[in-house]
Amino acid sequence: MAEIFQPNNNKLTIFCGPCVIESLEQLQRIAAGLEFLHKRDDCELYFKASFDKANRTSLESYRGPGLDKGLKMLESIKRDFGYKLITDIHESHQAAPLAEVVDVVQIPAFLCRQTDLIVAVAKTKAQINIKKGQFMNPKDMRYSALKAIKSRGGTEASYLESSKYGVCLTERGSSFGYGNLVVDMRSLVIMREFAPVIFDVTHSVQMPGMGGGKSSGDSSFAPYLARAAAAVGVDGFFIETHYDPANALSDGANMIALEKLPTLFDEIFAIRNALNAR
């Protein structure tokens, strides 16, 4: 099993793509728009899309094409574009088929303490990204990481142990009253003591349940938070994107438009390079 993060290679990990699979044509169009990242030698791109959004606010909300159809579409993106893949898991029985197609299996924030789910993924060859729950103390994410590490024969949740066993953690904001999130940048530093850390730019500006039966958000704040996280220092970024966010079937309100990504990443890399040059 390859390491998800190799701290000495100085590459930034990028998880990027649409929130949910809407169609194969949608995936292809977004994948084509991300080729500028795939060509960079200072980052590692993982194309992200969910085959099922199992935690939507309303029963009527669009969820996706499902496991079988979704994996076939993701597999075609890997074949046609040469991208590595990341997608969410919701139930333990999905771990084995997911690991046959995707490179990283993501534990959703609401499920970050689900032991059986984490262990099921750890028993596969896939790397694991565990998103910090909006309700979690960042210090306690050590134990979620340890569930995966120990299931793979590890014993200590240090930064190097976590990367060795293909485990990383993602910050995506914390509940701040009802229907709002706030990012405590200290959590990036705290969690990075025992695991590589990804910053989820777009879910951090989400407003859960504030869209009349669905989540809303304010994407205008996303670039500011991305630049702030780059200045703090992280191992990678998670960004959801769409060519038409206003008409996306999930989380469009907090997405960054595909056409705006090159400028944002230029800023992120400029900040990172300035830090590394010190």
TrEMBL record:
<dbReference type="InterPro" id="IPR006218">
    <property type="entry name" value="DAHP1/KDSA"/>
</dbReference>
<dbReference type="InterPro" id="IPR006269">
    <property type="entry name" value="KDO8P_synthase"/>
</dbReference>
<dbReference type="Pfam" id="PF00793">
    <property type="entry name" value="DAHP_synth_1"/>
</dbReference>
<comment type="similarity">
    <text>Belongs to the KdsA family.</text>
</comment>
<comment type="pathway">
    <text>Carbohydrate biosynthesis; 3-deoxy-D-manno-octulosonate biosynthesis; 3-deoxy-D-manno-octulosonate from D-ribulose 5-phosphate: step 2/3.</text>
</comment>
<protein>
    <recommendedName>
        <fullName>2-dehydro-3-deoxyphosphooctonate aldolase</fullName>
        <ecNumber>2.5.1.55</ecNumber>
    </recommendedName>
</protein>
<keyword id="KW-0808">Transferase</keyword>
<dbReference type="GO" id="GO:0019294">
    <property type="term" value="P:keto-3-deoxy-D-manno-octulosonic acid biosynthetic process"/>
</dbReference>
<keyword id="KW-0963">Cytoplasm</keyword>
<feature type="domain" description="DAHP synthetase I/KDSA">
    <location>
        <begin position="4"/>
        <end position="264"/>
    </location>
</feature>
<keyword id="KW-0448">Lipopolysaccharide biosynthesis</keyword>
<dbReference type="GO" id="GO:0005737">
    <property type="term" value="C:cytoplasm"/>
</dbReference>
<dbReference type="GO" id="GO:0008676">
    <property type="term" value="F:3-deoxy-8-phosphooctulonate synthase activity"/>
</dbReference>
<comment type="pathway">
    <text>Bacterial outer membrane biogenesis; lipopolysaccharide biosynthesis.</text>
</comment>
<dbReference type="InterPro" id="IPR013785">
    <property type="entry name" value="Aldolase_TIM"/>
</dbReference>
